[in-house]
Amino acid sequence: MSTTATYTYNKLFKLENGKKLRNVDIAYQTYGKLNAKKDNVIWACHALTANADVLDWWKGLFGSNALFNPEEHFIICANVLGSHYGTTNPLSINPVTGLPYYLAFPEFTIRDLVKAHQLLAAHLGIDHIKVLIGGSLGGQQAVEWAITDSKIIDNLILLATNAVHSPWGIAFNESQRLAISTDRTFYAQQPDGGLKGLKAARSIALLSYRTYDAYVATQLESVNDKTGSFRASSYQNYQGEKLCKRFNAYSYWYLGKAMDSHNVGRGRESVISALKLIKSNTLVIGIENDVLFPLVEQEFLAKNITDASFQSIKSAYGHDGFLIETDTLTNIISNFLKESINKKIIKLHKTA
């Protein structure tokens, strides 16, 4: 059983920066049924341009006959604030003006994305999460949620993510925003504004998601006499156009800024002390040749989250490996969850 729905939060939604949004819509999808004990919830946090349909974009890890399947679990994925896919975003109507927000939309942070998740969880009556999982921007949400509300999360799985977004990652995002801002239509107050800039931004992003080896494996020319019309060029153009058909430049602009805001130490004693607040049984997974979120960032998470487990994987796809290497991830995560059950049994025997 699957449900596609939208929850409207009728009270003022106060952002971390103090600004407020009215009547925030949160689009979400659920799969399967909540069991009598309410202990079979798997909550997936999605990455930058994904949506609430986790069975579509994380195939192999989620779906029938997959590790996280709706026959056994109650799976929830919510579209993040600012995104193109149903949750309140820059193309939504501003109730004050009666027109879309566009660049008048207030900036928001990872913590604001998490706040929306928490409001949805309360609306759905979810007060216990068996597994909270996310990669990249989704991992940033998951780690922040586990810091603020760790008691309700049994198992935390963080993939290709970090505790603080790096200067390197911010530079990539700023370069993409510079590309978008060169498109004059971005300032024209129209839904398709900035699409040429968005196409260029996506091309920049791909270089951080993939690797040299991935391009050699998939885009290398089979002949030696070409001086133009290269496969790699066509690929960059195709991927840029593909995103423009399903996303908008304004959401992309704001979500990149939200990623840049990620710092679990903000307003807290330190980054390390913030990570120590996580009490969930935690697995951190990194990708050895991830250019955007280098392995050192996952090693830092695992080192500073109490009793966290750490695994690294190899992938020709670099950062995108967390979406692609689902067979390897299934093996690692299933073993982790089995060990988690064994730890619980041992703990119960000790306290009996």
From TrEMBL:
Binding positions (substrate): R202, D320
Localization (cell): Cytoplasm
GO cellular component terms, semicolon-separated: cytoplasm
Q: Which InterPro entries match?
A: AB_hydrolase_1, AB_hydrolase_fold, HAT_MetX-like
Task: Indicate where this protein is primarily found.
Answer: cytoplasm
> Which catalytic reaction applies to this protein?
L-homoserine + acetyl-CoA = O-acetyl-L-homoserine + CoA
Q: Which GO terms describe its biological process?
A: homoserine metabolic process; methionine biosynthetic process
The residues responsible for catalysis, as annotated, are S136, D290, H319
Functional pathway? Amino-acid biosynthesis; L-methionine biosynthesis via de novo pathway; O-acetyl-L-homoserine from L-homoserine: step 1/1
What are the AB hydrolase-1 domain coordinates in residue numbering?
45-323
Under Enzyme Commission nomenclature, its number is 2.3.1.31
Q: Name one Pfam family in it.
A: Abhydrolase_1
| Record function comment | Transfers an acetyl group from acetyl-CoA to L-homoserine, forming acetyl-L-homoserine.
Alphabetical list of NCBIfam families matching this protein: homoserO_Ac_trn
Its quaternary organisation is: Homodimer.
Protein name as catalogued: Homoserine O-acetyltransferase
Q: Which organism is it from?
A: Pedobacter frigoris
